[in-house]
Amino acid sequence: MKNLISWVEIPATDFKRAVMFYNAILGLDLQEVDCGEEKMACFPTGEGAIFFAPDFNPSKDGVIVSLNTENDLDNTIIRIENNGGKIIYPKTKIQAEGRGYFALFIDSEGNRMGLYGDA
Fold first, then answer.
1. Looking at the whole model, is its pTM more than 0.90?
2. 89 and 77 Cβ atoms separated by less than 8 Å
3. Cβ-Cβ contacts under 8 Å for 113 (sequence gap 6 or more)
4. Which has fewest Cβ within 10 Å: 23, 25, 53, 79?
5. Total of domains in the chain
6. 62 and 79 in contact (C-beta within 8 Å)?
7. Backbone CA torsion sign across 4, 22, 54, 111
8. How far apart are CA 49 and CA 108, in angstroms?
9. Where residue 57 sits, what CATH number does that domain have?
10. Which H/E stretch holds residue 65?
11. Which letter, b or e, does each residue of 43-58 get, where b requires 16 or more Cβ atoms within 10 Å of its Cβ?
């Protein structure tokens, strides 16, 4: 199995400032990717990014931890709904090349979480 934690997004309202901040504190050179309305600067290890989107705001509720489902995203969504969770953003193709699919859900405790999978 791949890593259980697949992806972490850190929201930014000032994308360039956030990229500079994380580059400075982590000693990185994050490369910016423009996906139209959305922008991201992916971590070199592949498990997350600084992320900008018009409706994605930093807050105590802003960071999304995504669980890796490998090729079982559809069945995982069914299991979430069957066990008291709620899908709040349906399975969606990620616009960046080769990134797979994601979905967002509310878990049984009210936490906003993400799912990531290849199919």
1. no
2. no
3. 64, 65, 66, 67, 104, 105, 106, 107
4. 25
5. 1
6. no
7. positive
8. 26
9. 3.10.180.10
10. strand 64-68
11. beeeebbbbbbeeeee
- Whole-number Å distance between alpha carbons of 14 and 82: 39
pLDDT tens digit sequence for 11-69: 888 999 899 888 888 888 998 999 889 999 999 988 889 999 998 887 767 678 888 88
Tokens of 17: 């400032």
Amino acid at 92: T
Determine the Cα–Cα distance for residues 26 and 90; give it in Å rounded to an integer: 33
Residue 9 neighbours by CB distance under 10 Å: 20
Q: What are phi and psi of 72, to 5 degrees?
A: -125, 30
Alpha helices in the chain (DSSP H): 15-26, 73-82
